[in-house]
Structures are given as structure tokens and as C-alpha cells.
């Protein structure tokens, strides 16, 4: 049993003019999505870009407050009714990395903005997760939707170095680290919170915690963020949530 909702959509996204796209991303058109419920109510999912936005975009995800745009080596938050957004770029990524959809949903998204079928985009594949595979040497970054926002996991494979994982944020008015270790960005649309990381390894079937925290450097108005990791077993995968 599928469900139908009227969704915001956009004109063509032009690379290099991201912030101007804010004016049009949230106008309600007659585009309709049909996403299978799959026994639960699915409110956050990732669409493969088949022309909904410009060619640099690989995947996108929407909720009532923002569109998340996933390009080859960066993620953008575009907020409703704002010319501004937040950009999360991968620092020194592996240029051979790929983005892939995971946990495919049985339904498809369809954009039917008018009577001219040449403008329709149909049977868009949708996923509950996406993965940047080997975006840093030996490191995957998985994005998934949760109630109220977006979360990501950094998976460090055996032998890889978590110190290579760096993200550079731009577009925020200000940022701060809280006493609890959260990294908070103040944006035109409100606060974007990155919760303090929780890290662990599974060794011999046992989940073992690893001490982790954000390592933050400021470059003018930009913030470079990585992770400070305690001791861990380099022969087993390390997950940073």
C-alpha cells in the first residue's frame, strides 16, 4: 500500500549558484511522490537524481525544513525560505570514491509538473540510506534519516586512519562546541546540531566502546572538523556515530 504526498521541487539546479536555488526549492508544485509504506511511515528518504536537480547532484533528501543535496564530495543543507545554506565538504577526499544507495525502498518517486510528458521524471529510485564508499582511504561515510534530521556514521576499515577524516563547514553565521561535546551551527534557519560522537568496535561478537570527540579548527568563518579517538584495535573496523 503506497502513500501519496505533494512535495516541494525545483527548477534546474545550476552548479555554482546554489544559494540562489533557495528561492525556488520549496515552492509547491504538482509533483507527486509514491513511496511504499513498507509497514512503517517513511518520512525521510534519499532520491537518486535523475534530473530533479542539476548534473552535479547525485542524491537528494527532503523534509519540511530543508533539502539535503549530496554531490560527489560534499553535502549541502538548503533551508526553506532562505537564500543561505550550510555546506559540508569532505577534506582531501579520494577522487575515485563512489556514492551508492543502500536499503532500496520498494516505491518510486514521480515528478509530473504538467501535461507535457517530456518534462516528467518517473520511477526515481529511493533509499533509506546512502554511502560515500572510500571517500577517505579505507573509510566509508553513511547517511541516514532520523526523526527530525540527518545522521551519519563514519566507518573506518581495518588499517585505515581516522585522522584522515576531515569535514569543512561553511555558510553558518557562527558555531560552537557545547560542554557535552556537541558541535552546533547557527544558520539562517536555526540551529544545526552535530551530536557528540559515539564510537565503538565489535570484536569477537562483543561491542566495545571507544573514546571519541570532535577535533575542531577554525579557518575564518569556516570550521574544519575531525575526530579525536582514544585507543582502538586497528585490526577491526571502527564505527563513529
What does this structure look like?
This protein is mainly beta. The chain is 0% helix and 56% strand. It contains no helices and 20 strands. It has strands at 2-8, 28-36, 46-48, 57-62, 66-71, 74-79, 85-90, 98-111, 121-136, 139-146, 149-156, 167-170, 174-177, 183-187, 190-194, 199-203, 206-210, 212-219, 222-229, 238-240. The strands form 2 sheets. The chain has a 17-stranded antiparallel sheet that branches. Strands 13-14-15 form a 3-stranded antiparallel sheet, with no helix packed on it. The radius of gyration is 19 Å and the shape is globular.
Blueprint of the fold:
Elements: E1 2-8, E2 28-36, E3 46-48, E4 57-62, E5 66-71, E6 74-79, E7 85-90, E8 98-111, E9 121-136, E10 139-146, E11 149-156, E12 167-170, E13 174-177, E14 183-187, E15 190-194, E16 199-203, E17 206-210, E18 212-219, E19 222-229, E20 238-240
Considering DSSP H and I runs of 4 or more, what fraction of the residues is helical? under 10%
Ends apart, CA distance between termini: 33 Å
Q: Find the count of extended strands (DSSP E, 2+ residues).
A: 20
Sequence of secondary-structure elements: EEEEEEEEEEEEEEEEEEEE
**Regions with little confidence, pLDDT below 50 for 5+ residues:** 1-42
User: How large is the radius of gyration?
Assistant: 19 Å
What's the total helix number?
A: 0
Average residue-wise pLDDT: 82
Judging from the principal axes of the Cα atoms, what is the shape? globular
Report on the biggest sheet.
17 strands, antiparallel
| Protein structure class | mainly beta
Give the DSSP E fraction (strand runs of 2 or more residues).
Answer: over 45%
